[in-house]
Amino acid sequence: DSGVTQTPKHLITATGQRVTLRCSPRSGDLSVYWYQQSLDQGLQFLIQYYNGEERAKGNILERFSAQQFPDLHSELNLSSLELGDSALYFCASSGQQGADTEAFFGQGTRLTVV
Amino acid sequence: SQQGEEDPQALSIQEGENATMNCSYKTSINNLQWYRQNSGRGLVHLILIRSNEREKHSGRLRVTLDTSKKSSSLLITASRAADTASYFCATDEDMRFGAGTRLTVKP
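^ inputs. structure came back:
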């Protein structure tokens, strides 16, 4: 158990809909990262938050948005869903910025858009 | 673009053999990390090597770091079927991953 909790584990929704994925980081971790992994592909970095502030942005579509709340949990919102958005979405958390800390990954949310 | 780039993309070996995979990165770093992913699961941290270290061991894992070449290698000795997974590297400066190395260990 990594200590990172992602909910829901599975999500099936129709094209055009909007969903929210939730991530609770490990206790005390300030950074949260979001990744998208399509079938048999590598991890695409979407966005990073550090202590509530956006720290880095990757290949995140305009239809996607994220935020980190004061209690450090994070949500990834995906809207106007398309079939190609079907993927595993992972979040990871790590400790203080710049410290020698590893990242801990959740088990992912498997999103299926039909 | 991502910082860590792993190669080869795929590696297939027999149980008991050693597996070596490489990682290249672009900018100065404080540390570099290796992760493993079993199919469909979250990544699991394997080992972290700091920029002032050249080599580090953890069980059957050996990691080297060459900051002059901006590269790292991960060696898995005496591989087992359970080592079958994808392996990724990332740096502290940029937690972006490449496509990974898909290792298959045949029993």
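Chain B has a mean pLDDT of 92. The radius of gyration of chain B is 13 Å.
thumbs up if we can close this ticket
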